[in-house]
## 1
Amino acid sequence: MKIGVFIPELLRHLFKKPATVDYPLQKLEVPRDFRGSPYLRPELCIVCRACERDCPAEAIEITATNEAEKRFRMVIHNDRCIHCAQCVDSCPTEAMLMDTRFEISDYDRHNLKMEWEYVRAVVKPKAEPKTS
Amino acid sequence: MRFQIPIGPQHPALKEPISLRMTVEGEIIRDADIRLGYNHRGLEKLAEQKTWIQNIYLTERICGICSHSHTTCYVQGVEKLMELEPPKRGLYIRTLVAELERIHSHLLWLGVAGHEAGFDSFFMYTWRDREIVMDILEIICGNRVHYGINTIGGVRRDLDEQQVKHILDSLAILRQRSEYYQHLGTNEPSFVARLAGVGYLSREDAIALCAVGPTLRASGVPMDVRKDDPYAVYDEVPFEVCTADTCDVLGRTVVRIKELFQCYNIIEYLLKNLPSGPVAVRAPRRAKPNEVVSRYEAPRGENIHYIKSNGTDKPERLKVRAPTLGNYAATIKMLKNGFIADVPLIFAAIDPCICCAERAVSLVDARSGQEKIISMNSLKTLSLKVSAGKARKREAEWPL
Amino acid sequence: MATVKTLIYLVIYPGLLFLFLYSTFVEWYDRKLYARLQNRMGPTHTGRFGLLQPIADFIKLMAKEDIVPDRADRKMFSVLPAVGLAIVFTAMLLLPVWNYSLDQPSAISFNGDLIVVLYLLSLPTFIFFLAGWSSTNLFSTIGGARVLTMLFGYEVPLFLSVLSPAVLADSWRLAEIAAFYRQKPALALVNLLGFIVALICVQAKLERTPFDIPHAETEIVGGTFTEYSGKKLALFRLMMDAEMVVAAGLLATVFLGGFPGGVFLGLLNFIIKTLFVIFFLSLIRATTSRIRVDQVVSFAWKYLAPLAILQLLIVILVKGLIS
Ligand code: SF4
Ligand code: SF4
C-alpha cells in the first residue's frame, strides 16, 4: 500500500484536454450503422404488413385509404418506437430503413408522428426475409 | 439506543427504488430488512401477449445494463423450443457481445463502488474508460445500451474486418487501463480500508443462501454457468473461473477485476478464431408445445428464464429469475453487524439491478416473518377488508 | 479617518464584500481544479470559464422555496446559518491581511488572536451539529453525531500543529508569527510536518473527502443538511466556502509567512498563498476515498496526533538550538 498512488495520474491530466464533450455546442459522430428512427421508402412497399406485425412497440400502423386504388397510409409513431430496427429486418423489400437521427425529442408527441400515403408498389421481394 | 433508518425507496445510494429498513444501534446495524415491489412492471404478463420475436425486445428491456444477458437467455430457450441450431459465426458474435457487455458492466461496477466509497475520481476515470467499450458496442450493434443483436436463430448483424481490427486495438487500451485500476484499487490506502473486511459472507453461508455470480465466487466457490453448463461457444473457449477467498467486498472487487482480464482473453480468442458463414438461420413463427429452462451467466450472476410454449406464436408463460434476486438473502446476512457507512458499499457489491428482480408481489408478515405470495384478487379483498369502516387518517405519521 | 478605515475593513476588504466574492471564486477554483484532475470540464458556461457559476448557484438557491420541517426547532433551525456565517466572517477579520505596519496589522490584532481564530473555526462544527440535531430528521441526526465524533479526532492535532510555529516564533499573535517567519524563512521549513498535519486536519474540518462523512450522500443522504433548503442552504454553502478561505488564510499566515506588502501586494500575496493551500486541499479531495467515522478517529489519534506532538518536539529542540 502506498500513499497517494493516484496523484501522478491526476496531475498528468490537469492540463490535458477534458475527455468530456461540450455537448449541445459540440457533437460526436454516430457510427454508420447507428439505429436512429425508421423511415419508409413508399415506392418499395408492397404492404405485406410484416413490419406492422413484428414491431414490438406497435408503433407502425398501416391502413387502407382506398381499397380500389390500392392506396395505403402508413404511420410510424416515433413516440412509441423503441428503435429496435426489427421492422427493417422484417421488411422483404428493404422499404423500411433506419436513419441516424437521435435528437428527436419534441414538446408534443404528435409531432413525432411520420406519415406516408402511397400506392402499393409492385416489386418482387429482393431478399428472403430473415424471419418470416 | 436502537432506531430504524429507512434507506430507500428514494435514496442517493440507490439508483433504483428498493427499501432497506435498517435497525441500528449508533453506527452499527443490528437488523436489516429488504422490501421489494416498488418497480414491478408486469413484464411477464406482457410477454404472454407478444410474439416470440417481439419478446426479444421486451426481455431486452428487463435490464439496461445486462440487456444482452436477458435476450440471450430468452433466445437460447426459444431456440431449444423451436429446435433450431444457430450457425457458429452467429454464436461467436453473440458470445463476443456478451463478453463486451461483461466488461462494460464490471467497469461500471468498479466506478459505482468507487462512488459509494466516496472515491469520485476513481469513478470518473473508470467510467471514462468504459466509454471505449460502449463505443465498440455501438459500432457493432448500432446502439449503446439496448444492443438488439440477438434474434431467434442467431444474430442480426455481421462483423467486418475493420470492426474486428477496431475492437482488437481498443482492447489493448482497455487491458492497460484495467491493469492500472487493479494497481490503484489494491494500493490506495483509504479505498482498501473501506473495502477490506466489509460485508463478510462465509463460504457456507454463500452456498446456503444461494448467492450467485461474483458474490458467490468471492466466497471461494468456483461456480460459473459458463463452465458448469456451457452454452453458446463457451465449451470451445479457454478461460478460467475467477475466485477470491477473502469473502468481503474487496474480494468481490478482485473477482470482477480478474474477470475483466478473462473477458479480454476470451474476446481475443473469439476474434482470432471467428468462423465464416451465415450469422443466422430462419426461424419458424410458432413453437411446439413444450417447456424449457435456460441458464446464462450474466455479469451479476446466474440468470434463469423458464419458457413454456403452447403451439401458438406467443409464449404461454415466461418466468425470469434475475441474478439480483438470488443475492438478496445473502445481502441481509452481509449487512448485519456492519456499519451504516458500509450499507451502500455492501449493497452495491452485489451489483443490484432492482428492476430486473421485481417479479411478483411478496408480502412479509412483520410478526411471523413469513413470506407469502398473494394474487391480485385476494390482495384487493384484503385491502378492502382492512380499510373498510376506517376513517381516512389525516396527518399520518411516517411509519418508522 | 479611523472610522472610514474600520468601515472599509468591515464591509469591503477583507470583510463582507471581499469575502463573499473571494469565497465564490474559491469554490469555482476548487470545482474547476477537481474537474480537471478528473479529466472533466467543470463549470464552463456561466461567465468566462464558468467563473460566475458559484454566484449563479447562490442566487438560484436564494430564490428557491425555503422549507422548515414541522418537527424541527423552528428558531434554532432558522437562525443557525446566519450565526454560522457571522462566526466565519468574524474569524476572517482577525487575519492580518491589511498590513500597514506591524503595530496595526489589522483592525483587531492582539496577543492571543491565534487562539481566538482557532476557537472561531471550531464553532462552525458545532453549528453543523446543532443544525443536524435541530432538524430532527434521522439522517441529519446521524450526520450531527458524526460531526461531533469527527471533532474529537481532528481538533487536537490541528491545535497542536498550528501552535508549534507559534511556539517557535514565541508569540500568540498572528501578525507577529507571520513577521517572524518572513524574517527567517529558513525556519518555516522546520514546520513542514506540522503543515501537512494541519492540511489534513483542515480538510477534516471542512468536511471534504476523505472526511465528508457527516454529509456522505450515498450513506445518509444530505447528512446534516438534509432538511435545509433555499436561503438557509445557500448561506450554509457560502459559510463552508468562507470557512475554506479563512482556514487556508490561517495556514498561510502561520506556516507561509503571512501577506506582506501593503494593500495591493498584500492582496496578491493573500490570493496566491490561499490558492496554494487550497490546491493541496483539492488534490487530497481528488486522491482519496471517504473513510469511515471510526477510521477517522483512529487515524487521527494513531498518526496525526503523534506527528503533531513530534512536530512540537522538533520545534522545542530547534528553539533550544537557535537561542
Ligand atoms: S424500430 Fe422497432 S419499434 Fe420502431 S417501428 Fe421499427 S420495429 Fe417498431
Ligand atoms: S414490411 Fe416492408 S414491404 Fe411490408 S408493409 Fe412493411 S414496409 Fe411495406
Note: Chain C has one domain: 66-322.
## 2
Amino acid sequence: MNAPENTQTLSFIPASEFKQRTTEAVADAHLRQSFRSAMDFLMAKRAAQFPDADALEAQRALAEHIRRYSLSRLPELLEKLERQLTANGIQVHWAENAEQANAIIVGIAQKHSAELMVKGKSMVSEETELNHAMEAAGIAALESDMGEYIVQLDGEKPSHIIMPAIHKTKQQIARLFAEKVPGASYTESVDELIGIGRAVLREKFMAAEIGLSGVNFAVAETGTLCLVENEGNGRMCTTVPDVHIAITGIEKVVEKLEHVPPLLNLLTRSATGQIITTYFNMISRPRQPGELDGPKEVHLVLLDNGRTQAYADEQMRATLQCIRCGACMNHCPVYTRIGGHAYGTTYPGPIGEIISPHMMGLAATHALPTASTLCGACGEVCPVKIPIPDLLIRLRAEATHDARPGHAPLVGQGAARSALMDFVWAGWAALYSRPALYRAFVWLATRFRFLTPPMQSGWTVSRTPLKPAPRTLREQLAGRHLKT
Amino acid sequence: MSARDSILRRLRAAPPGQLVLPPDVPAFYAAVREQAPATDRAARIELFCERMSFWRGEIVRVTPGNWAETLRVLCVTKGVNSLLYGPRGPHAATLEAAGIKGLKPYDRPVDEWKPELFRDTDAGFTSTRGGIAETGTLVVWPDDKEPRLMSLVPPIHFALLDANAICDTPFEAMSAQGWISDKPVAMPSNALFISGPSKTADIQITLAYGAHGPKELVILLLLGEGES
Ligand code: SF4
C-alpha cells in the first residue's frame, strides 16, 4: 500500500506531558461519553459471565497459579519453547529491545523482497513501533484488525488494547472511509462500513508476502502458538501469506497445553464478556510437504523490552502475569474519564501504569502510577490477580527514592524527585520529630492564619483555599476538657 | 553476547522467589465436573445447539443417509455456485455423488489459484473433529486433504459434525483429541476452535458478521438414522 495518507504518525506523545493531556481529555465531553458508555457496556458483559463469585475466585486462583508457575520457570520454559518450535520447523529470534525486534522483522521481509506486510492484532508490534521501521525500509505495513485498520487510516494509535477504535463514533468512521478509501461512499451502516473494510483488506491478504501476528499463549511443550480473535484477520495473516512472523513478549510462555484452557476462558470472558472468541487458532508448524496452504515459513520473535527489569524484582514480577484482557482499564475510573490516548503509551490504563515504566523508564512515565485513585477495582477484576494497586504504590516510591538496598535501580529511578519536595519532606520530618519545634510551629500557624494566601497554586483551581484553624487541635481539646 | 544469552542471563540472575508447584489443571476440572450434574449425549447436543445459535451458527440436523442431499438443497437455496471440497477428504465420494452444482476440488497449492479462491468461491465444506457444548464450538483440524483456507476464505462455511463427538468443555475436547494427556499426540500443523461466523464489534461496539472470514457458518449436525 503506497497511499501516503495511510501512514501512521508513530512517535509516542511523551508521557511527561501526561498531566496536561488529562486536562484536555477530561474537558472533551464527547470523548468522555464514548468511553463511559463503552466501558459500562464491557463491564456489564463481563459481570454477566461471572454470576457465581466463588467459582470465579477458584478460576482466578488457578489462572494466577498457572501464570506464577510459568514465570517461576521462565528461562527454562523459553529454552524449551525454542527447542520445540525449532523441532517443529518454526524459526525463533530473540530481541532485547524494540530496535532489535524491528531489525529482525525488516530483515526477514527484505530477504523475501516483500512490499506489503499485513498485520493481525499485535500490541507488541505497537510497542516496538514496527510500522514505522517497516515504512523506513520501504515496506508497507497494513493493520487488518478492523479497529486497528480504522485508527491507522486516520493516523492514530489504538486507545484500548482490545477495542482500538473505541474512541470513534460510526459517523466519524463513515467520514473517514468516504474520504480515504477509494470508491467508498458515505454510509453510517455498520454492516456496510465493515463490508468496505472487508473488501479492501481481502485484496491485501492476497497480495501480502508477509503476515504478522501477536501471540496470546506460547506452549513450550508442544511448540504451539495460540491466537485468540473474532474477526478472522488473524487467521488470514497467519495462513495466506508465504511468511508468518509472530512477535510476543517473553512472558507469554506456558509449559503445557493443559495450562491454556483456564487462561483462555478467563481471557475472553474478562475482555469482552464472551465465553470464547470466534477463532482459537493453534499454530504448531509451517506448511508441511503435501499440504496445499499455510505459510511456508513461520518465525517467532521473542521480545524483552524491559520485561527482565520487572522480572528481576520479586514483587514487580507479578506485572508479567498479565494476559492482556483489558478488564483493568474497563473498570478504571481514571481510564474511563481520560480515555486511552491521554496516557501516551502503548498500554493505557492500570496495566499500562505498571508495565510502561519498565519499557520506557521512569523518567518518561513516573506520572502514570499517580493516575489512580487506588480504588482497587483493577486488582479486583484482574483474572490473574495482579496486585495492581500495590504495584502502583511501589512505583510511586521508586520514582521518588533511591533503589532499595540490595535492589538494582530501575531505569529512571528517582526521576520524580525534586529539590523542593525533598526540602518540604525534610522540614516535615524535622517538625514532627521535635515536639517543641512542632508546638511552636502550630502556635504560629494558627495565630497568623490571616496570612494564608487566597490563591494556592493548583489547589485553589477547583477547591477552597486551605487555612489553619484558629486554635490547634491540642488547644481545642484542652478547652473542651475544662468545660466538662 | 547474543540477545538470547543476555535475556536468559538476566532472567537467571533474578532472585528465584517463592517455589511454585505445578498447577494440577486436570484435577481442577475433575472437581468442577463432580459438582456439576453429569451430562448425557442429548444434553450436550442441546447445549451445543443453543450456544452455537447464539454465535449465529446455523444448525441443520441431518443423518448419514440424507446429509449430502440436504447440503445440495442448502447450496441451491443459498445461491451457492461453487462449493470447495477436499477431493481426498473423508467425504469426497459422498459429495461427488450428491449432484451438487459447482463442486470445486481443492487439488493444487493455493499459490496457483489465490485470486480464484478469494474472488470466485462461494462456499467451503469441511469435516470436523468434534464439538464443544459449553462454548458452542467446532474443533477443526485442517490437513493435506482439507486445507486451512477452506474454512476461512469462502463466504459460507459448511461443516459436518458428528453429534457423538461433542464434548462438554474445551479442556475435554483437547483431551479427547489426545493433545492433553500423559503422552500427548503431536499437535497438528494448525488446529482450530471455531465458534460461529467471523465477527467484529470494533465500530461503536455494534456487532457485525463477516468481518474477514465466513459470513455464514452452517453446521450439518449428524445424528443417528431416525433421530432427527
Ligand atoms: S493486568 Fe490483569 S486485568 Fe489488566 S489487562 Fe492484564 S490480566 Fe487483564
Note: The pocket of iron/sulfur cluster is lined by residues A 322-328, 350-351, 381-384, 386 (CB under 6 Å).
## 3
Amino acid sequence: MSENQNQTPVVRCRDVSRTYQKDAIPVHALRSVDLDVHAGEFVSLAGPSGSGKSTLLNIIGGLDEFDGGSVQVDGVELDGLSPAALSALRLEKIGFVFQAYNLLPVLTAQENVEFILQLQGIDKQQRRERAAQALDNLGLGELGERRPGELSGGQQQRVAIARAIVTRPVLLVADEPTANLDSATTEELLVLMARLNSEQGMTIVTATHDPMVMSHAERQVHLSDGRIDRDG
Amino acid sequence: MIALAWRNLWRNKTRTLLTAGGIAFAVFLVTFSMALQGGSYEDMIKAATRFYTGHAQINQRDFVTDSKLEQTIGNAAALRAQLEKKFSLVALPRVQAFGIVSREERSIGGMLLGIDFAAEVAQLDLYDDITAGAIPTAPDQALVGAAMARNLGAELGDDIVILGSGKRGGVAAMALTVTGILSTGQAELDRNLLFAPVSSVQDAFGLEDEVHNLVLVLENYTQVKALAAPINDLLQPDQSYRTWQQLLPEVEQGIELDRVSSAIFYYILLILVSFAVLNTFVMVIFERTREFGMLMALGLRPWRIIGQVQIESLFLSFIGVLLGSVLSAALVAYLAEVGIPLSAMGGEAAQQSMAKMQAGSVESIYPAFSAASLTTAPVVLILGAQLSALISMLRVRRLNPVDALRAE
Ligand SMILES: Nc1ncnc2c1ncn2[C@@H]1O[C@H](COP(=O)(O)OP(=O)(O)OP(=O)(O)O)[C@@H](O)[C@H]1O
Ligand SMILES: [Mg+2]
C-alpha cells in the first residue's frame, strides 16, 4: 500500500455529507466523511444497519448526490457533474455488483456480459472474446449460454462480477454482494474477489455486515451513524 | 437492442398474447367492418344510380327547378356524340313533357318521357321491371306505368292518345300503342310515367335536336367529380352538370351519416384497446423498475431505456396488427367472392334502409378494402401503443437509480 500513497487515489472523499429528508425530518446519512481509496486496495465498509455504508458506496459510484464536500473518482470531481456525465463516468470507470437483480433475465450469461461492452460501443468480435474471457476467468466458461434463471445465486453473482470487470473499470463497487448467498457460496465469491484484487490489482470497495467478507478485505473501514470511526 | 426488445416482449407470454390479441381483435373488427361498409356504400351507390338517375346529368339550368318544355339543351346529338367520344361514358337523351293521356272515355294527367330505349335498357335497371309485354321498338309504341295503365283500363296492344302543348304553343298530339307495362313498385312512378321513343316525342312536341336531359352513365362512377371541370368546358353557360350526389342527396347523406356514426364507434373501440395497452405497459414498467434502475446504474441514459420499451411496444402492436389484418383480409377476400346475402344481415330492416336510400335492389353486399379501411385501425393502434408506452415510461426520466434499485 505504501507504494501507492503518492499517486492520485482512485477515490478521494473530503468532508462528504449527505442528508435525506424523511417526512420533513433531516436524516444525516453521512457526516463529514474523509476517505481515500488507492489503486489496488480492497476496502470493506462495515458498520451497523443504517450507518451509511450504502450511501457512501452510492456516492463513490456516482449513483447518488451528496450535499457537502468533494468526491473525486480517478481524479474527476463528481460534484457538479450532469446526470449524463455521471452516466458516462459510471459506464467507463466503475463496475457495479448489487445485492440482487444484477442481470437481464432474457439474456444469457454471455450476452449479459457483452451487453455492457455494447453500451461502450465495442465491436462484436471483441465483445464476444472479452466476455468469454471474463466468464472463463471467473470459472463460468461452461455456463455462458445459460440465462440467469438457470443459474444458482452464486453463479449469478459471479456473472455480475464478470460484467463489472469486463470493462476494465478503475473501481469495483459491490454493495452486499453476498447478502443473498449461503456461507459456502459466500466464501467462494469472496475468494474470487480477493483473487481479482491480488492477481489483477482490481480496486474494490464493498459494503457488508458479514464478518467473513471483512476478513477477506485487507482494509476495513467502520462506519457508525454516518461517520468513519475506525479505518484499517 | 432489437433482439433484447423482442425477448423482453415474451417475458410474460400470456400478457403479451392477450394484449396482442386485443389489438388483433380491434384491427380485425374495424378493418372488416370498414371494408363491409365501404363495399355496401359502393353497392348502394351503384344500385341507386343504375336504377334510373345515372351518375350525372346535364340540363338546361332552369329546367332543374322549372321543368318547362322550352328549357332544353340544343344540338343534343352533337353534344352526346362529343361526350361519348371524349370520356368513357354513355349519354342517354331524355325529353320530358306533361300531357293528358286518354284511352276511350278515360283521361289522366301524366308525364311522357322520350328516351332512347335501346341505350337506356343497356345501362339502367328500371326496365327490368317490365311485367308485361316488351320495350317499344317502333316510333308509335309506348311503355306505360302499371298504375297508369290500370287507371286508363289499357292493356297491351291498346291505343292511347296524349295531348299536350307543343313548344311553339300549338297542340301536341300523339297516338301510341301500349307494348309494355312497367311495374317498379314505386307508386309515384307507376302512376305517372309513360315512355315513348325520343324522336317521336320531339316531333310531336315541336322540339328539334333538343333534349331536356342527358343522363350520363360513367364507366367508373367515382370519376363524377373529376369529370365536372372538363365536361363543364363543353357546356353552354346556361347548362349545368350535376352529379349523383346532387341528384340523389339522400343517398350521399345516408352514407355520410352511417360513416360518421360508425367512425365514432370505431374510435371508441380503438381508444379502449389503447387503454388496455397502456395498462399493460404500466404493469410492465412497475415490474421492471429495479431492472431499469440497474441499467441506469450501469450507465444507460433514461431515453435509451424509454427507446427500448418503445421498440417493445412497436413489436407488440405489429404482432396484433399483422394478426388482425391477415384475418380480416382473408375474410374480406372470401366474402368479396361470395358476397353476403342481405337477408343474412338483419333481412328486412336492411332491405328497407336500402329502399330508403333510393330505389334499386341490392341483394348481396361485397366487402371491399379501401386505403382508409386498411390503414385506420393499424395506424391508430400502433400510435396508441407508442403513446401508451411513452406515457408509462415518462417517469423513468425522473427515476433515480438508487431509488429504483431499492423499489419493491
Ligand atoms: N432514500 C432515502 N431516503 C431517506 N432516508 C434514507 C434514504 N436512503 C438512506 N436513508 C437513510 O440513511 C441512513 C443510512 O442508510 P444506508 O442505506 O446508507 O445504511 P447502510 O449502512 O447501508 O444500512 P444497511 O446495512 O441496512 O444496508 C439510514 O438512516 C437510512 O434510513
Ligand atoms: Mg446498505
Note: Chain A has a mean pLDDT of 91.
## 4
Amino acid sequence: MSDSDGSYNEASSPESEEVSQLRSSSSGGGMNTRSTRRSNAELRSTTGGGYIWEDSIQRPWDIVQEDEGGSLATAIADLVQSNKRKRLFYEQTPLQRGIIRHLILVLDLSSAMADKDMRPSRYQLSLQYAVQFVNEYFEQNPISQLGVIGMKDGIAHLISQLGGNPAEHITAIQALRKDEPAGVPSLQNALEMARGALYHVPSHGTKEVVIIFGALLSCDPGDIHKTILTLKTERIRVRVVGLAAQVAVCKELCKQTNDGDFLSTYGVILNEQHFKELLLSACTPPASTKTEKSAKGKSASELMRMGFPSRIVETTPSFCACHTRLLKGGYLCPRCNVKVCSLPTECPACGLTLILSTHLARSYHHLMPLRNWYEVEWPEAKRSKASSCFGCHKPFAPVPPTISSSGSSTKIRISTTSSGSTATVSHQDKSTATHTSAAGPTGSTGRFRCPTCHRQFCIDCDLFAHEVLHNCPGCEATSPVSRRQNASSSSKAAAAAAPAFTTAPVQV
Amino acid sequence: MNAVDGSAHVPQESYAEELEEELPSLLVIVLDVSPAGWGTESPPISLKEAVASLLVFANSHLALNHSNEIAVLAAHSSTVRFLYPPRQTTSSTDESADGNSTNNNGSQGAKGRVGGLTTEEGADPSLREGSPSSGAAGASMYRQFRVVNEAVVEQLDALLSKTSVADIAQPSNPDVAVETSMVSGALSIALSYINRQTGGGEATSGEDVTAAKRARILLVSVCSDLAAQYVPIMNCIFAAQKMKVPIDICKIGKDTVFLQQAADTTGGVYIHLDHPKGLTQYLMTAFLPDRLLRTHLVLPTQSSIDFRAACFCHKRVVDIGYVCNICLSIFCQPPADRSCAICSTVFDPLELSDLTKQPVLIRPNGQKKKAKKKAKRDEGSATPAPAPAAAAS
Ligand SMILES: [Zn+2]
Ligand SMILES: [Zn+2]
Ligand SMILES: [Zn+2]
Ligand SMILES: [Zn+2]
Ligand SMILES: [Zn+2]
Ligand SMILES: [Zn+2]
C-alpha cells in the first residue's frame, strides 16, 4: 500500500514547478500562510526583541473596560471579537504550491524531551501532536507522502518509511510511547537520513523536512554546515519547531534551506497551543520559493492522464487484477474495466493512473481561495437592510440611532496588538472609549461583507467560511442567472416566456 | 478497501463515548425545490406530497427528544431560503437578490405555474390546505409541530409564488428552465448554521463540535445536473467531514454524481427512491435514526459509487481526465494553448503530444516490412502518432 502512491510519479518530467506570476512579493516569507502569520502576530518572531519576558507586565484586568451600566459583558464580547479578528487575514492569492509533497518528520527522542515543562511531558506531548500532524497532513495533502525519523542516542532511527498510508505512520509513532527518551540528538545524522529518504523523490514533488527539536545541542559526527549546503543544493526545505530556545544552527539550517527566510520556518514555542499551531502550520502546502522558481529554466510541467474509477459492489467475489485476491467489490478502471482493489494505483491492464477524485478535490481550496471579506462600518450597516447574518441567521447588533448613514464613524477598538503586549486603555483614553461605546456598543459592527455577493455575515461565519468551508454561502446561493436578472430588470422577457412554462405541467 | 477514500482519517472511537448520554440533535433538511426537477411531465411524486412527508418526518424528529432542533432550507434554482426558522422580515438583502418579480403579469404567470407543479387544483391556497398544519388538526396539535409546519408552508409558498419565469430560465436559452438548484449554496448555509448552533467559532477546528450537539443534514434532491458546482460541493463535503456532520441524500429522479460522494465521504446514507410515492416510509426508516443509532442498524448500502469528477474547462463529468501536476486541476482534454487554464503553467509540448497520440496497431511478423513502410509514411505526413515515441526513445 505504502508504495502504491508512487505510481503516477513515474510519468513525471524533470522539473515542473513553475514561476508564479501571481505571487506577490509583499511579504518576505516563502510561506506566509494564515497560521504562520497568526503565530507571528502572537509572538516574538520578529527578531528585534519582543520576548515575552521583556514586555511590560500584562495583566488581563487592565484591558477590561466597564460600560456605563458597570457591566463587563460588552467588554468581554469585544475582547473575544478582537481575538477572532486577529485570525481574519487569509492568503487569497492563488499561489503555486507544491501539492505533491514529500515530507520527513524528525522527532527528537533525546533525554531533553523528558523535561516536564509541558504536560504530561515534552516527549508524550510531541508524540501526541505528531499523530495529529500526520492526520492533518494527509487530510490536506492526500496524495503526498510522509516518513518519520527519530533522533536518539546520537544516531538517527528510521521510525517509518516514506509512504502514503497515515495508519502506518501513526502506529509507528504510537509504538514510541512506551519508550523513554534517552541520549543526545544528532541533527546531522537525522538530516542525512532524511536526505537519503528523499533522494529518489521525483522532482515535481516538494522535498521537506520538519524537525521537532527539544534539545539545545546537536552531537554530530562531521561538519553539519556541509550537510546544510547539500540540503540546499538538493532543494530540501527544513522547518524546525524548537521546544526550548532558539539554537543558532537551527536558525542557520532554516535560513539556508528556505531562501533566507527563517522567520516563518523556525519557531520556538511559547506554550502547548502554540506548539500545535507551529507544527500544524507545516501541513499547508508551501508556496514555491525564489530559488525553486529561478532554478526552473525550462518549462517542463506536464499533464497527467488519470482515471476516476467508480466503486462497485458485487454479490459474488471476483479476482482483482492487481493482487489476484478474491473480493466482493472494488474499483473498475474506466478505460478497460479491469477491477482493482485499492486506490491510488496504476491499472495493471492498461497502465492508466487510477485515483479517487476526492483526493484531488481536497486541495482545490488552495487554488481558488475565498476572497477576504471586509468589515462593514456603521454608516454602511445603517444603510443596508440586513439585520441578521446570511449564513447562520444570527441577528446583528442593532445600529445605534446616533449613527448617521453618511460620513464615517471614528472607530476605537480595544485591541491586543501583535506583539502580545496589550494596548491598555489609559485614563486619558477612557473618556473617548466611553464616548464611542455610547455611539456603538462595541465600536465595530461585527458584520463582514463579501465583496462579490455583498451579503453580510457575522464574525463566526467569516472564520468558518475561510478556515473550514472555503465557500462563500452568499455567492453559492446566488445563481449567475439571477445576478444577471438583477442587472437588467427583464420583466418583459418574463412575461413573454411565461406561456412556455405554464403549458406543460398543468396537463399533469 | 474503504481506507483509501480519506474517510478513514476521521477517528471513529469517539462515537462510542457519546452513546452514554442522549444528546439533542439538530437536523437540517435541505429541500430541492427547483422547478425543473418537480415540473417534469409526470413527476413521480408531487412537491405537495413531498412537503407533507417531510413535515411528518420533521415532526417525528422533534418528537424523539424534546430538545431536538430542526432547520429547513429550500434550494431553488436561483436562490436559497430558510423555511424554518424563518428569517426576520426586516432582512431584505436576500429579497433583493431573489430576482424582483415586480411585474404583475410575470408573477401571475409564475403563480399559476407553481400551482400546476404542485397540485392539480392549481391555486396557491391548495398548497396550504393540503398541509397537515391547517384546519381542525391545528387546534389539537403539539405547538412545536404547528410552528414548524406553518412556517415551512408559509415560507415555501412565499418563495414559490415570487419565482418568476425569468428566474429559472437558462441564460442562453430563455425558453428552457435551468436544470440545477443551488445545492452548494444550501449546503454552505446549512453548515454555517450548524457551525453556529453547535458551538460557533469556538470550535472551528472541528474537534469539539460533537461534544456540543450532534447535527446532520438531509438533502432531498430532484435535479440532476450539479456539475457546475463541483468545487463548492466538494468543499462542503470536506467541511462536513471535518465537522463530523453526515450528509444524507434522498434522491428522487435520476442519480447525481457528486451527491453519492457526499454521502459516502461524510458517512451519510444515500438512497435513490425506487418508489417515490413511499417517501414517508423511506424517510422514517432510513433517515430518522441518528448517527449513534445507525451503528446498530442495518442500513441501506450504496451498491456502487460514482467517483467521477467534473472538468474545470467545460464542467463536464468525466471518468478519464487530464490533471495538471502543479495545481491538480482536471481537464477533459489537453488544453489547446498548451498551458493550464488555472495556474497558467506551460506544459511540455513533447509530453503533451504523447497524451494525444493515437493507439498504434501492432502487426503480425509477416507484415513487418509493410508496417515499417507505413510508419515512415506517417512520420512524413506529420501525424502526431508514432513520432513522439521515436523521439522519446
Ligand atoms: Zn488487488
Ligand atoms: Zn485499465
Ligand atoms: Zn453568521
Ligand atoms: Zn459572497
Ligand atoms: Zn472540459
Ligand atoms: Zn495547473
Note: The pocket of zinc ion (ligand 6) is lined by residues B 324, 326-327, 329, 340, 342-343, 345 (CB under 6 Å).
